[in-house]
Design goal:
0% strand, mainly alpha, elongated
Length: 90
């Protein structure tokens, strides 16, 4: 058997950092929480599913407000972090 050929150095891509994971995106968590807030808002204000169950109705309404505020705060933080100038060499 012969040895496998080594790739040419010019053909190999070099990364300054390791490749990023999609879950490392700063907007991932705010979008996820905003989705949960939208779901709670739908169940709490628009849908008639929990009309006969006031405990679940109020839970969804309060969760909509709390999760919406958290998603807004995390979204603003992600935008501030992503638009900040990257640290330069010292």
């Amino acid at each position: 058997m012969s040895e496998p050929e080594k790739p040419n150095e010019a053909d190999v891509e070099e990364y300054d950092e390791e490749p990023r994971n999609p879950f490392d995106n700063p907007y991932f968590l705010p979008i996820l929480i905003a989705g949960f807030a939208a779901w709670c808002g739908w169940d709490g204000f628009i849908s008639d599913t929990f009309r006969d169950s006031p405990g679940k109705l109020w839970f969804n309404r309060i969760a909509f407000l709390v999760l919406g505020a958290i998603a807004g705060w995390l979204g603003a933080k992600a935008r501030r972090d992503s638009t900040a100038a990257p640290p330069g060499p010292e």
